Amino acid sequence: MAECRYNGTELMICLAARAMVDRTTAFIGTGVPMLAASLAQRMHAPSLMPVFEFGGTGAILEKLPLAVGDMRTYNKGLYASGICDIMEAAQRGFIEYGFLGGAQIDPFGNLNTTVIGNHDKPKVRLPGSGGGNDVGSTCWRTIMIMRQTNRSFVPKVDFVTTPGFLTGPGSREKAGLPAGTGPYRVVTNLATLDFEPESKRMRVLALNPQATLDEVKAATGFELIIPPQIGRNEEPTDEELRILREEVDKEKLYI
Q1: Which of 90, 144, 155, 254 lies 20 to 30 Å from 162 when distance is taken between CA atoms?
Q2: Number of domains in the chain
Q3: Is the pTM of this model over 0.90?
Q4: In a domain, 110, yes or no
C-alpha cells in the first residue's frame, strides 16, 4: 500500500476549509478552524470574513493566530471591537457559519467542552464554553470539527456546553433559540456527517478517502442514520497541502 501523503489532521483542515464559503461571515474558534479559515482564504474564499470572539472581524489570516484574542485576528481587518459587540452581531443574525470543536458530541449535535463525568466531581475538567455556547445558539449553521471515536461520539453528552438540536425536533425553538439555526455539518478524520431534517439525528453524508462505513460505525457510540447513497470526499490536493504546510502552519504548531 502506498504511503499516505497527509495525516488525519491535515485532512480535517482541508475538508473544513472547503466548507467555508466565499463572501460569508464565519465565527472561528481556536485550533483547526483557524487553519481552515486561513487555507480557505488562500484557496477559494478570499473574501471570507472571519469573526473572532474578542472582536476581530474580517482579518486577513497571513499569520496563524494562536488564540481568538491574538493580535493576528485583527490583521488588516474591517472592524476591531469587543466581545459584547461580536456576540450581539451573532444574536442579530449577522454571522452565517460557526466552526467549533468539542470533546463529546451526541446524535443531535449537542457539544460538551466542560467536563467528562459528573459535573460536581468530574473525571476530567475541560476548558469550558468560551464563546461556544453563543456560536451554537445563534449562528445560522454550525460546523463541528473533531476526531471520531466512540469515546467522543456518545449517546448522551456528560454536559451540554453548546446546544445542538437538544432532544430532537422543535426543542431548540422551545428553549428560545432562533428558528432555522443549529448544527449543519460534522467534519471528522473518517467522514462528513449532517443531520436528517425530520428527526434531527446525525447521518452519514460522505466518507473520507480510504475510510469505510464499518470504520465510521465502529467509531460512533450511537446508531447513525445511513442513507441509500453516501458520497466520498476527495483527497487533499497537492496545492492544498503545500499551502497548509508552507504558508498556513509552517511552524508545525498543529500539523
Answers
A1: 254
A2: 1
A3: yes
A4: yes
